[in-house]
Amino acid sequence: MAFDKHASPDTKQYHIQVARGEVGRYVFLPGDPFRTDLIASFLEDAKLIAHNREHKTWTGTLCGEKVSVTSTGMGCPSTAIAVEELIKAGADTFIRIGTAGPVRDSSDCERYDGVIVTAAVRDEGTTTHYIPIEYPAVADRHVVEALSRAALAKKLNYAEGISQSKDSFYGEIDPDCSPVSGLLKERWRAWQRGNVMCSEMECAALFIVSSIRGKRAGAIMNWGDMNETIQTACDAVRLLIGQDKANSEQGG
């Protein structure tokens, strides 16, 4: 199938292979296609919609509302593609669910269950193709609040803070392998001194694309316990569904 930028919104999107009506307005975004299966198990009546390249999509329900999960693949380029095409298919609220490494201090893994990301350092190249680097990559405050409330209700200790979104996994875990190791280490120390909480590879693209398209996005990252994180994200979406219904009734 050839790419057609003028294709109807009802046409299946080129990369994720879903059409309008096949996904809900609320979408969970893991990086790993195989993790979509686990997340889908927390939805009601989940059905596999499409799997093309790194993008695998399930759709089910929460609180009677259609909710989907689509994998982004690793990194900002494929994340931006997935979010762009999900928006064209009708989605408007995104929660990234993933794992991250601590930046500020390795003891964060012991003190916290993970991080609810409020903003992202744009230490990657994709988002500069959207808007100048001075534009901040910020999560939607309502999504952040819903995630925080959901975590608190479960008595989980998620920090709220900034993530570093990078392009090179090995630049983080083995900077000495790079000819610019000195620069990488210097920048890492800057993130630590600036109280950046964690490091991952997708939040910046998610926040930038969502912001400039007028959509909502947030992210919840953990150090390893994925089930608790998924449950927290699902509870956050339940809160958002309730708030959105109340706002709609008041507006009507």
What do these coordinates show?
The longest helix has 26 residues. This protein has 8 helices and 11 strands. Strands 1, 2, 3, 4, 5, 6, 7, 8, 9, 10 and 11 form an 11-stranded mixed sheet that branches. By secondary structure, it is α/β, with parallel strands linked by helices.
Write a brief caption for the model:
Helices cover 37% and strands 27% of the residues. The chain is α/β, with parallel strands linked by helices and 252 residues long.
Task: Looking at this protein, list some descriptive labels.
11 strands; Rossmann fold; single chain; 8 helices; 252 residues; 11-stranded mixed sheet; alpha/beta
Topology (SSEs and partners):
Layout: E1 26-29, H1 33-40, E2 44-52, E3 55-62, E4 65-70, H2 76-88, E5 93-99, E6 101-102, H3 108-111, E7 114-123, E8 137-138, H4 141-153, E9 158-166, H5 169-173, H6 181-193, E10 198-200, H7 203-212, E11 216-222, H8 226-251
Helix pairs in contact: 2-7, 4-8
